[in-house]
User: Which sequence fits this backbone?
């Protein structure tokens, strides 16, 4: 049985975008640093009738704006796993998709699903994300350097011509939270039980094709790399193409 629809429970880590009856396949989506999972809501209509698109919502943004931020990657992954394992049966088809920092969280979710629950998702797809060993200490100093934080994360919305000052400060606050969160990451050199795909943007200078090759060491169920037109946020720029590429895991 796939994901169950219904209203959003306050404090919930999982946000289903389908309010209808359960669907056979679940696509779990994790957003990049500084973002909420609401950006994946349009994917539900593109994914097809057999798929429930479910976002992972970290506290301190969107539907969880009033909540204090998470303090560690372990806390986030544990919260997601508690809800996910209660929502899905062990043999329910699951695809995990993570973008940038969301890719690191997705890797940890899939790794711990295998190690702690004996579950094997169909696939882990990471987009615009460096391999886990490159995240260790990567956020050091960024929480206090807004310009460098925006540059490394390719956050174009911080351009003063595109966003007002209040909105800019709110976005920066969430980015700082995620930079601090990334510093709590402890590297585990473990291969995932699932097929692993690493996707990138051809014009992305932050995460290159060479960086994506580093994911091969974490692929316990097969590895595939794919490059798309666009930059670091090609998943938003070419959402239709990205969902079409994901569809191979359930069609």
Assistant:
């Amino acid at each position: 049985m796939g994901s169950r629809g219904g209203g959003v429970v306050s404090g919930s880590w999982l946000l289903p975008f389908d309010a209808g009856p359960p669907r056979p396949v679940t696509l779990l989506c994790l957003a990049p640093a500084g973002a909420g999972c609401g950006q994946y809501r349009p994917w539900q209509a593109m994914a097809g009738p057999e798929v429930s698109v479910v976002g992972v919502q970290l506290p301190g943004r969107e539907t969880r704006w009033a909540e204090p931020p998470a303090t560690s990657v372990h806390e986030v992954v544990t919260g997601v796993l508690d809800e996910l394992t209660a929502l899905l049966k062990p043999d329910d088809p699951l695809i995990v998709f993570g973008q940038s920092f969301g890719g690191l969280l997705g890797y940890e979710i899939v790794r711990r699903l295998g190690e702690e629950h004996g579950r094997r998702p169909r696939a882990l797809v990471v987009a615009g994300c460096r391999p886990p060993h490159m995240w260790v200490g990567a956020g050091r100093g960024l929480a206090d350097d807004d310009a460098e934080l925006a540059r490394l994360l390719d956050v174009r919305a911080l351009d003063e011509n595109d966003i007002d000052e209040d909105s800019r400060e709110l976005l920066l606050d969430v980015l700082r939270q995620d930079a601090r969160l990334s510093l709590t990451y402890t590297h585990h050199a473990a291969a995932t039980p699932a097929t692993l795909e690493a996707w990138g943007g051809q014009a992305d200078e932050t995460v290159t094709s060479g960086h994506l090759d580093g994911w091969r060491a974490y692929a316990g169920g097969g590895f595939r790399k794919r490059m798309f037109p666009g930059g670091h946020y090609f998943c938003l720029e070419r959402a239709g193409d990205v969902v079409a590429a994901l569809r191979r895991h359930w069609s």
Observations:
- Residues 14-135+189-249 form a domain with the Rossmann fold fold (CATH 3.40.50.1820).
- The radius of gyration is 17 Å.
